[in-house]
Amino acid sequence: MFILTTATSVFPTRLVRVASASVQPVATVRNLEVYLDADATMRAHVTSTVRVCFAILRQINSVRHSLTRPALITLLRALVISKLDYCNSVLASAPAVLLSRFQSVLHAAARLVFSANRSAYTTPLLQELH
To answer: By residue range, what is the domain housing residue 58?
Structure first.
C-alpha cells in the first residue's frame, strides 16, 4: 500500500505480503501498454508514448523521400496517430503540460508531411491535414 501526500508520494520500501506471496512495490506498472503511476499523473505513459512516436517519426523521416504524400500520411496514421489515440481516455484528467507533449508529436508529424523546418508554424499544416 502507498500513501499519497500533497507534495510527493511515499512508497513502501519493504516487501508487501499479499496472501501467501511477497510483492515488491513499484512506482509504475504497465497493463495493456498503458503505464500507470502510483501518483496517478500518467507521466510514465505519456513519456513512453512520446518516446516511441518520435522514434517512429525518425524512421519514417529516413524513407520519406521514397514515399508519396498519401502513402506518408497513411503510414503516419497507422504508426503514430494510432499510438497517440490508444487508450487516450485514461488521459482525461491529465495536466495540460503532459498533453502538450502529445501535441508536439502531432506538430512534428505535420512538419514531416510538408517537409517544413522545425520552426515552421504548424497550425495551417494541421488544418490542411485534417
So the answer is: 3-129
